[in-house]
Each structure stands twice: as C-alpha cells, then as structure tokens.
Design goal:
- Helices cover 59% and strands 1% of the residues.
- The protein is an all-alpha fold.
- The protein has a domain at 1-112.
- Strands 1-2 form a two-stranded antiparallel sheet.
- Helix 5 packs antiparallel against helix 6 and helix 13 (299-311) packs across helix 14.
- The longest helix has 17 residues, at 13-29.
- The radius of gyration is 43 Å and the shape is elongated.
- The chain starts with 6 loop residues before the first strand and ends with a helix.
C-alpha cells in the first residue's frame, strides 16, 4: 500500500503550528487520490524501507527519544516523520508548553551508534568544518568503499570525509584501499593534523600499508622538514608490526628527501639499511643514489651503487650511465668509463657531445692520447661538431702525454680552421706547452694575440709566459713581462713571485730580487696606492730554493 507523501516539519512551536495549518489547507483543497477505508489494516513495514537521502539523519541520541515514544523530546527542533490519514482537516493539539506531541512512527527507530573516541578522528574539526553524518541506505562495506575511492579520486574531500565518518559511525569498516585513497586528499588539501589522524586510525586498525607510510612520510617531510620525517621513520622501523610492512618504496621516499637536502651521509645509511632488512633495491632506488652521490661529489659511492645495481641484474638508465661516466672522469677511472660508454653504445642510447667530452677528458687525464683521438674521430662520425671543451681536452691529452709540440701544432690548426672557437682557456692550454718547452718567444706571441683579440689576460697567462722565460734563462724578458703585468693592473700571486725571483737569481739580478722582496712593484689598488710586500711563505720558499 502506497502513500502520497511523507511530511517533515521542524522548527519552533509557532512555526510548526503554521506549517501544519498550511498542510491541512492543501490536503483539504486537494483530496487524496485514493479513498482508503478507515478499517483498512496497514501491515508492518519490511526492513528494506527507504528513507529519502535528502533528509538528514542524525544519531538517535540527539533527536530520538527512548524506545518509549510517549516521552516527549527535549530537543528544540522536532523531527516528525510519520503518516496520517487523509482527512479534510487536520487538527494537532499542543501541550502546555506549546510543543507538538510525537506520534509513533511506522518507520524503524534508528539505533544509537557511539562515535569512536580512541583516536578522535570523528570528534575533531578539520579544514572542511564539522562533518555531517548521513543515514546510509547501502550497508555493504565493499560498495561504500568503492564510492569512497571514487570521491577521493575526484578530489571531493568534503563528501568523502562525510561518507567516511558516516561509515565509522554506523559501525562499517572502510577498506584499506579506500583509506589510502582518502589519505592523499588530506595530504594535499588539508592540514597535516587531518592526515595524521587518518594515519593513526589506519595504523590502529591494522590497515596501514607501505603506501600509507610513504604518503604520511611525504606529508611530514613537506610540512616539517626531512629531519622530522626521518625521526618518524626511525620510530616506525623500531616497531615490530611495521617492520613487515615497510617496503623499498618507503626507503626511496626517505632517500629522496635526504638527498634533496644534500645529506649524503644519511642517504648512505638508508642504503645500507636496505641490505640489512633484506630488501632488494629497485631501479628507481639506484637512480636516486647515483644522482645524489654525484651531486654531492661522492664519486666513489656513486660507482659502488652502480656496480651493485649491475650485480643484481638491473639495467641502468641513460641518466645513471652518464652520471657514472662523469664520476669516473673525476676519479680518473677511464677504463670503467670506457666500459660504461661501450654499454651505452650497445644499448643504442643517445650519445651526446657532453658525453664524448667527458670520455675524452677522462682519457686525457691519464695520458691516453691515442684513445682520446679515437673518441674524437668517433664523435665526428656520429655527426657531432666539436666545441671549445672538446679542443681543450684534446690539447690537455697531448700535453699530459708529453707531446707538447703536437699540442702547439693542434692549437695553430684550431686557430686556422676554427678561429671563432678560440678563448682564453685554449690560449692558456697552449701556453702550458710553451712553458714546458721554454718557448718564450712563442709564449710572448700568444700573449700578444690574446691582447689583440681583447681576451681576458689573467694572472695564469702571465705566469706561463714568465715560466717559459725562466726555463729559457731569460730573466730580463721575464722582468719585462712582469712589469707589463703590473701596468695592466693584474695582481701577481705567489707563483708569479716565485717564478720571477728564480729567474732573477739565475741571471744574478740581485738588485731586482731585493726590490721584489722589499716592497714589490705592484700597488694594492689605485685608491690606496700602497705596495704589497712579498709574503713570508714566498720568502721561505725562496730561501729553501737558494739553499738547495
């Protein structure tokens, strides 16, 4: 048997009276569609009766009286939900206090659920205010959990929170997947306290997973810093129940935040603890380790992490291999760099100019000039054009191999074919060979070309030319270069003074030596016009040199 409507009337006594009068008038003007005899018996409702979802439903402790319906409610807002016969007029008497009596409803009384107080996840305010509780028509936990997941994925934080609180109040348990879906919403769009309450709830219910720990540690590190996150991580590790849950992704999270703070020692500890807990590092873990160690200048640790990754059968990415080659260049391990380069070629990876320059530099540092030039020819075959850094590494490879004349020949070839690439670094590299060969005339010529091209003449450039004059036993020329250096307002350093003093001693120019030792020839600045005496270390070095 069906009825036309349910009527809900709430508010003060006077308002309820006026509303009942209006309803009575409407019923009088529009009689019922059905003529139901008064003697008709109404069967008891089945448990599947549905309350419209638009009507808010509250815990029975607030709006419903005890099972005895005759006891009036003391709440100021009466919640009337029942059925009446369709009569021409409806007269509802009030009590002495102006309140309406409560009629026995045919609907089942909603039981009273006590909100969980152990963790306070429902009785505290969040960013979204006080969560409203709803009567849940659906009682299947799996179905409600799927709804919670969908709301969380759509960033409906308020609706998801209300559904979560209603499930908890109704004694229903959301799934771990649903809670893990809601937790990121709190992490990204709510205060940290909301996320912590959800985390503690999941932890207490045994629903926390590795993903849960990852999310909460990320939230703590983002809001309070990596130190707080690390302290929390250490406490989690000490708990017996959590040890079985923590996975390598949780470690990756902590490695990332410690590495971002350049705390490579903490990163190394986390890496070692991975092995202690018998967790196999993933490709992402080793990628993080290598990048962090390279950025922090810990080349040995980067190479060690790379070797461990190869032992576990993992295929390193292109970025990892490039970082390892850079580390090998710094540590002088050209053989390991070449093997890594060959691995990249076999894998068909992109071999850029920077990678070729790094390999050539690694070979040049060890004096492997022939291999360096092989790499140069391979660079040209790959369709790449050498840049200034390429030529500098090749010149240094020849110099370190003792082929100084070839170094000067290559420099003049660069000057003839690629004049636009010449800079002060290339000139200084050629001046090193001039200094070793004692080619002071050649050095003076290069110094003059640098001035003509408007390149910056640093103290290093002058030192190389003065050194060439010293090797060639040309003290007077060295003094002229030194005087030119002073006139150009270039401040000499310790190496300048040592070289010019040695040259003067070989030429028996003692007066010039005394002048340099007493007052020097260069003022500190144009403003003060004061002279800098040769410092004590230079004098001591000179005395030791003379005694020797």
């Amino acid at each position: 048997m069906s009825f036309d409507n349910f009527v809900q009337i709430t508010g003060g006594a006077e308002a309820v009276k006026k509303a009942l009068f209006g309803v009575s008038t409407i019923i009088y003007k529009h009689p019922s569609k059905e003529n139901i005899p008064l003697e008709t018996s109404i069967p008891d409702p089945t448990p599947s009766i549905i309350i419209p979802s638009e009507l808010p439903v509250y815990p029975a402790s607030n709006f419903y009286s005890a099972p005895d319906a005759a006891i009036p409610s003391v709440h100021p807002s009466l919640y009337v939900l029942g059925s009446t016969r369709h009569v021409p007029e409806l007269a509802v008497p009030a009590d002495d206090h102006g309140r309406l009596p409560i009629y026995q409803s045919i609907l089942p009384v909603i039981p009273t659920y006590s909100a969980p107080k152990c963790l306070g996840e429902l009785d505290k305010k969040s960013e979204h205010g006080v969560s409203r509780l709803h009567f849940l028509e659906e009682r299947d936990e799996e179905t409600l959990s799927r709804r919670l997941i969908k709301l969380s994925q759509n960033n409906k934080v308020r609706s998801a929170t209300e559904l979560f609180d209603s499930m908890r109040t109704s004694g229903l348990q959301p799934s771990a997947h649903a809670c893990n879906s809601l937790l990121p919403c709190y992490v990204h769009r709510s205060p940290l306290a909301d996320a912590m309450r959800m985390f503690e709830f999941m932890k207490a219910k045994g629903m926390a997973t590795g993903h849960t720990y990852t999310l909460i540690l990320k939230a703590v590190a983002s809001n309070q810093g990596y130190v707080s996150a690390l302290e929390m991580f250490n406490k989690i590790e000490e708990e017996e129940d959590s040890k079985k849950i923590i996975d390598v992704i949780v470690y990756n999270t902590m490695i990332y935040f410690c590495g971002r703070a350049k705390e490579w020692m903490l990163v190394e500890r986390l890496w070692r603890r991975l092995e202690q807990h018998s967790l196999n590092g993933t490709l992402l873990a080793y990628d993080l380790l290598d990048n962090i160690f390279v950025q922090c200048g810990q080349s040995e640790l980067a190479i060690a992490a790379y070797q461990e990754m190869l032992q576990k059968g993992l295929d390193p990415s292109e970025d990892i291999m490039k970082a390892i080659i850079a580390s090998c260049t710094k540590e002088g391990k050209w053989e390991f760099a070449m093997s890594t380069f060959s691995r990249m070629m076999r894998a068909g990876m992109n071999l850029g100019l920077i990678l070729f320059n790094s390999i050539i530099n690694s070979l040049g540092k060890d004096g492997q000039d022939e291999l360096a030039f092989r790499m140069y020819h391979l660079l040209k075959q790959s369709g790449l054009k050498p840049d200034q850094y390429t030529w500098i590494t090749l010149l240094l490879a020849l110099y370190r191999s003792g082929r100084c004349w070839d170094c000067l020949k290559l420099f003049h070839g660069i000057k003839g074919k690629h004049p636009t690439l010449l800079n002060d670094h290339l000139y200084n590299t050629a001046l090193i060979s001039c200094e070793k060969l004692g080619q002071w005339e050649h050095g003076l010529q290069l110094l003059w070309l640098m001035e003509k091209r408007g390149l910056k003449l640093s103290v290093v450039s002058y030192n190389h030319v003065i050194g060439a004059c010293e090797v060639a036993s040309k003290p007077k020329v060295a003094l002229k270069v030194y005087q030119r250096m002073i006139n150009q307002r270039c401040s000499p350093d310790t190496f300048t003074h040592l070289s010019i003093i040695r040259a003067c001693i070989w030429g028996s120019l003692w007066t010039e030596v005394e002048d340099i030792l007493e007052i020097g020839l260069q003022p500190v600045s144009i403003k003060t016009n004061k002279h800098i005496p040769v410092n004590a270390s230079e004098v001591n070095s000179l005395i030791l040199y003379i005694i020797a």
